[in-house]
Amino acid sequence: MAVISHLRGALSQVRPGPNFFGLIVGLVIFGWLAGSDEPFTGSPWLFVFVVWAWILSLVLHEFAHALVAFAAGDYSVREKGYLTLDVVRYVHPVMSILLPVLILVAGGIALPGGAVWIQPAAMRSRAWRSAVSLAGPATNLLFAFAMLVPVRLGWVGVLDFNLTLAFLLVAWFQIVAVALNMLPIPGLDGFGVIEPWLSPAALQKADQVRPYSLMLLIAILIGVPGAASWIFGLADGFIDVRATPGEIWRTIALEQFRFWNS
Q1: Would you put residue 115 in left (φ > 0), alpha (ψ -120 to 50) or beta?
Q2: Which of 38, 62, 79, 195 is catalytic?
């Protein structure tokens, strides 16, 4: 009951700003435009919708970290504006949006992009600190389900095929992001979950690795046999719908996403 009470208290502090509502309105508009594009001709609006949805997912991911951090006792996140769902509070234009989007376009790898600064020492317990790290990937998973449900329920279909592809591709990217972010690499949320329980010596070694976490992540994807295919296969399985394997949906969606190749 105490956990629920703390979460309710955190929710009472949420003050969504105009930038967040702008993201929602933009997603609806770009979704309508993507659905209106001719299928199998390459869709610029599908590209815009998917990138826009990715930015929205970054906002929700970082907001979830901040919301749970407030519930855990770190009230500084309110003063920093993290409970406003304002994109400018969480992301850097180049490191959080441009670079991840370029990697997304080039290789289909959904890298984490945003960040919130929290105060672990202000939190009630180590379990709460772990929960703060879990909140972000959990939100990505919920976002993936939100994209998948309209397709599974038939709310989008043959007449707006590009929108089906867009929803499934966004869901696919979210699952890839969850799988990558939950790796126990310093700097990622997977490490953040276990970090409160590690010894000072282990934390000291982790701090030495942290500046190279992105390079380590890419090295794992490239150098560890089967790592990338396992993660992609996990995401493919998530978007298996209408008796069509997810790999086929993903292949077609990426072709439409990269409209400049059409």
Answers
A1: beta
A2: 62
